[in-house]
Amino acid sequence: MRIISYNVNGIRAAISKGFIEWLQHSNPDVICLQEIKATEDQVPYLDIEMAGYPYQYYFPATKKGYSGVAILSKIKPNTIVFGTGIEHMDFEGRNVRVDFDDLSVMSLYLPSGTNIDRLSHKFRFMDDFQNYVNELKKEIPNLVICGDYNICHKAIDIHDPIRNANVSGFLPQERDWLDQFMKNGFIDSFRFFNDQPDNYSWWSYRAGARGNNKGWRIDYCLVSETLKEKLKRAYILPEAKHSDHCPVVVEIE
Fold this sequence. Notes:
Layout: E1 2-7, H1 11-16, H2 19-26, E2 30-34, H3 45-50, E3 55-59, E4 69-73, E5 79-82, H4 87-90, E6 95-99, E7 104-109, H5 116-139, E8 143-148, H6 172-183, E9 186-188, H7 189-193, E10 202-203, E11 215-216, E12 219-224, E13 231-236, E14 248-252
Parallel strand pairs: 1-2, 7-8
Antiparallel strand pairs: 1-14, 2-4, 3-4, 5-6, 6-7, 8-12, 9-12, 10-11, 13-14
């Protein structure tokens, strides 16, 4: 199974930049999208179906044009779960999960901490999400949690760790949470195969950041340790430019 995670920063904007054609060519079995900024009726459902994805699950935010996640799949899932059942998460459209025979795939969009209020909201979300996953793993041990975590795990995952030391997304508390989350039974699939620097998944639109590769790696495909022996490949696709993020990929046998 080839799984892609992609924060599209507005699915309609991404489509106008050739996203559907890219999707057809890239041909994953499942793609997890974040920040779709659209409701299902605003998405060209038939065009995406014609590209090979008859199973489409959209979970938008209550607020129009904001947040939202989706999963597109070639394979029919057994179960689809919209949200976590935790109200302060779900109204912002930040989690959708599909269950297949051997594993479950989740599209997650963790909040950013752009100001004090949002940072507080982010920490609350992180704690409650950890508890949610702890319970979920008892029922579904084989989880693939794809998404925009809005956190760089280590210094190698950000172009300038010194100047960004006090910036949300690279705060010690955020990094510690992600570290503990992984130690609680998940593998960073990209780092499982690649220990090299200068691999990023998001770049600011300012100051030619992408052209100069001054980026952050904040998008992950985290895979349950129970699937470790089935991991085949994991990589980043920086050449895909429909968004300020790029896709990240994991392949599982």
